[in-house]
Design a protein that fits this description.
- Helix content of chain A is 48%, strand content 12%.
- With 457 residues, chain A is of the alpha/beta class.
- Chain C has helices at residues 8-35, 40-43, 58-65, 69-99, 105-114, 120-134, 140-165, 168-176, 181-192, 194-210, 213-218, 226-229, 241-261, 263-270.
- With 277 residues, chain C is mostly helical.
- Chain C is built from 14 helices and no strands.
- Classes of the chains: A alpha/beta (457), B mainly alpha (320), C mainly alpha (277).
- At the B-C interface, helix 1, helix 2, helix 4, helix 5 and helix 6 of B face helix 1, helix 4, helix 5, helix 6 and helix 7 of C.
């Protein structure tokens, strides 16, 4: 799979390079930006390292084009709410918005977004060397930045979750012997969920300050994101559809889904006592403090645990691999933030030029090395990125990412599932009761396009 | 010090009119009234109107068509989540405010009786209620964090909490925990107000009771409590309104979970409005909350405060 | 019961209880002050660390490195402006409520209180759309007006009590001396009510300073105050607790100072002047 991609990629890069030579004289950023020199574009996104990296790169763009870029950075839900209000007031404060892809349906169906195709077709604006259909992870791009077959932007980050494990513990000779004696096979990074649970059980020693794993069980989106990995890997899904923008039968209470939740809950025994109130922030701190043997966590948080010595005590001691496999095979949930241009933008052309420029290889590499998660495979191929301990797991997960609903009702669907999952973790409901309730509510919410595939009690 | 609350009872309607020309009086109230009407009442009526529509910022097919009382019908009949959060909020208000009152009053009595220089003490006690709600939520999240939290550590050390237990994850502990944190933040308020009330009590009724040979308990029940009645009512009213609207602390600490164990009605309203962007229904939820608070307050206010209606100053409840 | 004379063991007991109460009330805050001087390693030690070698990096990291210092200025501008407006508009109204009589006065008075009963979330969206149509959205004016409207009820309720305490004979004497009624209010009555006005102002300041929701939705990025900045430090890459603590400490400083200065009047203010502090 990996080799195949690389081959395709090199071919693509050669083709792109040739095209670039042919058009080199025809298109320059400076020329293209001339009509917009002196304008200011304003953008908004989540206050995270890749956006900080972007705001450090922006002055280069300003120097080349005379277009000033102002960046507003907010906390996750602040960034989402601010944009939601701005779009509905149609006042056009922002020229570029960076939003999680689950917001896409809401924006697109309400006519808040400009399609990108006209910009791409405009020879004056389009950089011929920018070939998203060759340079980006296609599956991820189509899910993160498209809606209902229409292109609205490009990925700002391609996010997914994979397995983090303490490589030093798993390589320890004494642990290996003991593990083999108890479980009858060699201790190695988990390939399937049985192994994952064995390893969690083996290393779970709360009295020594070490937990087998750490679940993100708080009533918070983090719980839903994490559980989706289990759901998909067990062969389940929320809706029986091919793409996030489709509505279809509700299958979130399938036997596979129930099994995945049963399994997920069984891990609570090897997880910290306060797991029902932990989200990404807490498990991150636990991992940095060397208190967890393995967990499922975000690709863009890897830098702070595997590289940043000021924050982490386990630099050099963490390994990464794709989510363990079940009935669903190699798979993991796909998430991402995307660049979008609001309908009400006062400088859409300048906004497009900036986005296009940011999607260029050099900027993508710079962002990626500063804690971003690029949508360009060639960035992962670079020597600097390959040196990072998580490069391979990142690349593999980008290939296996499975979409989630981006329908206008997606936020409400998430809210329903988070509540029911949380109830189930707290022991108020069985896995079946919680998922049956979710299925019923989601089916009612989506209406006739989403009948229930499995009867609920 | 004389009567409670402080009013100058020498005046009547005629004197009020003499002091301020009829024209000038309303004129001075006007700017405040206009500001409040434009920026609070206006949006409020817009919200009430929204509650009668299907307006949604998420669903493009719902552009705000008039739907009559559909939202309220759904609220009353088909929304167990709302009623769950509503009853939980009532429980929260009753338990938290009652505990705050008992503890706060007891502390006030101790200070009143045994402490002469109160300035430093009362200032220190003011601190918890002066912190920004956003900060309070984060502070307690950090203190109760199951692996690094300071409070958790000492609870375990003294054996109040099992080694393998945590507070905000424990279905049976999480609600008491949010109540306890509200008590932490607001008991000082009750203490300070009750202390001020105690300080302004007249001496003569107490001396008369002593002469009659009444014991401390009798004096407390028959003399002090009746005299403090308006203050007690005020404290309960103010705390009740605020506790009913409690949002930031709990939302930051638990997000309403685990499950719906701490989902107060304001958190539910936030989800409907700012997560689902179901503004029509969200407005109906908000209006119900307003209505309940308004009714409770009006009944309370009229019953306790307006019993003796004065024409100036604050309404008086206590007999002089 | 009313007398303060007490026996020794009871005094000791009372002080012990009060000491516990003060410790309970203050420890969480002190812990945050300590946390603002801790490194990430000390913050996440398994046993609480009361003694540690302090770092002074958190404050510059967030206020200069993350450029949060303008947020403190914004907080000041918003809070001071709305407080000034509140007093200017609210005090005369309160004076009228204390002195004059007109039909529907008590109803209007109660109406001011009811404006505090609606959950803030419910009118957030209408207010946002309204300010957008006025063209005031994203400006500091919007949030100043919103905070002023919200706190007016408090001013009217508190100040009425303070004015009511001033004997009416003083008004009358001033009018006899040839002052206009307005002049009497501005030059004679208001100065007499100064402590009460100060307490009311401090409370308005605190409420505005601590407010999050309206400050978040009505003000633009460059004008956002500290409360809106705090959540930005809670990230999926790990919450910067040291910096959160540093912001929280700075955000409470002006409040602590003001609280100490007008503590007695503040208690009266909080009870709408119904008790003497």
């Amino acid at each position: 799979m990996l080799k195949h991609t690389r081959g395709q990629l090199i071919a693509g890069m050669i083709a792109a390079a040739m095209l670039q030579v042919a058009h080199a004289a025809a298109w320059t950023l400076e020329e293209a930006a001339k009509p917009y020199s002196g304008t200011t574009i304003r953008m908004v996104g989540e206050a995270l390292p890749p956006l900080e990296a972007l705001s450090k790169l922006a002055p280069q763009f300003e120097q080349a084009t005379g277009i000033k870029v102002e960046v507003e950075m907010y906390e996750h839900s602040e960034a989402v709410n601010k944009v939601q209000l701005d779009l509905n007031s149609q006042r056009g404060r922002y020229d570029v918005i960076i939003q999680p892809h689950r917001e896409m349906g809401k924006f697109a169906t309400n006519g808040h977004l400009l399609e990108i195709a006209p910009f791409m077709a405009d020879a004056a604006l389009r950089d011929p060397s920018f070939k998203p259909e060759e340079q980006l992870y296609q599956g991820a791009w189509k899910e993160i930045s498209w809606y209902d077959g229409k292109m609205y932007g490009f990925p700002f980050t391609v996010l997914n979750m994979f397995m983090w494990y303490r490589s030093d513990l798993l390589a320890d000779a004494k642990e290996k012997d003991g593990f083999k004696a108890k479980y009858g096979y060699d201790l190695a990074p988990a390939q399937n969920w049985d192994q994952y649970r064995d390893i969690a059980e083996w290393f779970n020693r709360p009295d020594q300050g070490l937990y087998g794993t750490a679940l993100q069980g708080k009533r918070h989106e983090a719980l839903w994101y994490e559980w989706l990995n289990f759901l998909y890997s067990f062969g389940g899904d929320v809706l029986d559809v091919q793409s996030g923008s489709q509505c279809g039968p509700v299958v979130v209470n399938s036997p596979q889904a129930i099994a995945s939740l049963d399994y997920y809950k069984s891990l609570l025994a090897f997880s910290p006592p306060d797991s029902l109130n932990y989200f990404w922030d807490d498990v991150m701190a636990l991992m940095q403090q060397a208190k967890v043997a393995e967990l499922i966590m975000w690709n863009d948080a890897t830098y702070a645990v595997a590289v940043d010595e000021t924050a982490s005590t386990v630099v050099g001691k963490v390994g990464f691999d794709i989510v363990p496999q079940g009935e669903g095979g190699k798979i993991g949930q796909l998430e991402g933030w995307t660049y979008l241009i609001p309908t009400y933008s006062k400088n859409p052309q300048a906004a497009f030029l900036f986005i296009q420029w940011m999607m260029g290889y050099d900027r993508q590499l710079e962002q990626h090395l500063n804690g971003g998660a690029s949508g360009r495979p060639d960035v992962y191929e670079s020597a600097d990125v390959q040196k990072l301990p998580y490069a391979k797991a990142s690349m593999a997960s980008n290939e296996y990412g499975k979409p989630k609903a981006t329908l206008p009702q997606s936020a409400e669907m998430t809210d329903i599932l988070v509540r029911e999952l949380s109830s189930s973790l707290a022991g108020e409901k069985s896995s079946k009761e919680a998922l049956d309730a979710s299925a019923k509510e989601i089916s009612t919410l989506l209406g006739s396009c989403a009948p229930m595939s499995y009867p609920a009690q | 010090m004389t009567s409670l609350p402080v009013t100058s009872n020498t005046s009547g309607k005629t004197r009020g009119a003499f002091l301020l020309d009829r024209g000038v009086g309303p004129l001075l109230v006007l700017p405040a009234t206009i500001l409040v009407v434009i920026f609070l009442v206006g949006p409020f009526y817009y919200m009430v109107y929204t509650a009668l529509t299907d307006l949604s910022f998420a669903d493009a097919t719902r552009k705000g068509a008039f739907v009559g009382f559909d939202n309220f019908r759904r609220l009353m009949r088909d929304d167990p989540l709302f009623w769950n959060s509503f009853l939980l909020t009532l429980k929260f208000v009753v338990v938290a405010v009652a505990m705050e009152f008992v503890i706060g009053f007891a502390l006030a009595l101790l200070i009143f009786k045994y402490v002469v220089r109160q300035r430093l003490l009362t200032t220190l006690l003011l601190i918890p209620m002066m912190l920004a709600p956003v900060a309070v939520g984060l502070i307690w999240r950090l203190l109760l964090q199951g692996d690094f939290g300071m409070v958790i550590y000492y609870l375990r050390a003294v054996g109040l909490l099992a080694q393998n237990a945590a507070v905000l994850s424990q279905p049976d502990l999480v609600f008491p925990a949010i109540v306890a944190i509200d008590i932490w933040q607001w008991t000082p308020f009750v203490t300070l107000v009750m202390l001020a009330g105690l300080m302004s009590l007249p001496r003569s009724p107490f001396e008369a009771a002593m002469m009659d040979g009444a014991g401390p308990l009798r004096i407390f029940l028959d003399v002090m409590l009746p005299l403090l009645r308006p203050i007690i009512a005020l404290v309960l009213l103010l705390r009740g309104i605020d506790a009913f609207k409690e949002f930031d602390k709990v939302f930051i600490m638990t997000g309403g979970g685990p499950g719906t164990l701490t989902e107060l009605v304001s958190i539910y309203a936030y989800r409907v409005n700012f997560r689902n962007w179901d503004l029509g229904y969200g407005a109906a939820v908000a209006f119900m909350v307003y209505l309940v608070v308004l009714i409770l307050c009006s009944v309370f206010y009229k019953a306790v405060y307006w019993s003796a209606k004065p024409s100036s100053g604050l309404p008086a409840g206590a007999k002089p | 019961m009313i007398d303060r004379a007490a026996s020794r063991p009871w005094t000791a007991f009372a002080w012990a209880v009060l000491l516990v109460a003060v410790v309970v009330a203050l420890t969480p805050y002190l812990w945050i002050v300590l946390a603002s001087f801790k490194t990430r390693v000390d913050l996440f030690s398994s046993a609480p660390k009361w003694l540690f070698s302090p770092t002074f990096a958190n404050y510059p990291a967030v206020f200069i490195g993350k450029e949060y210092w303008p947020l403190a200025i914004n907080s000041l501008i918003i809070s001071l402006s709305s407080t000034a407006l509140c007093i200017l508009i609210g005090a005369p109204a309160a004076y009228v409520f204390a002195r004059a009589d007109f039909p529907g006065k008590e109803d209007l008075f109660f109406f001011f209180l009811t404006t505090r009963m609606a959950p803030p979330i419910s009118i957030a969206v209408p207010l946002f759309l309204f300010f957008t149509s006025l063209g005031l959205i994203d400006t500091i004016y919007a949030v100043v007006i919103a905070h002023t409207s919200f706190n007016l009820s408090l001013v009217v309720w508190m100040m009425r009590g303070f004015f009511a305490e001033i004997p009416k004979e003083i008004d009358e004497a001033a009018v006899m001396d040839g002052r206009s009624r307005l002049g009497a209010f501005v030059f004679i009555i208001a100065p007499l009510a100064a402590p009460g006005i100060a307490a009311t102002a401090v409370l308005c300041f605190i409420l505005s300073w601590n407010e999050f929701l309206y400050a978040f939705i009505l003000v633009a990025f460059e004008g956002r105050p500290l409360t809106v900045g705090i959540p930005g430090l809670v990230t999926p890459h790990g919450t910067l607790w040291g910096q959160v603590a540093a912001v929280a400490v700075v955000a409470t400083l002006p409040i602590l100072i003001f609280t100490f200065l007008v503590q007695r009047q503040l208690v009266r203010g909080l009870t709408f002047g119904a008790v003497k502090g």
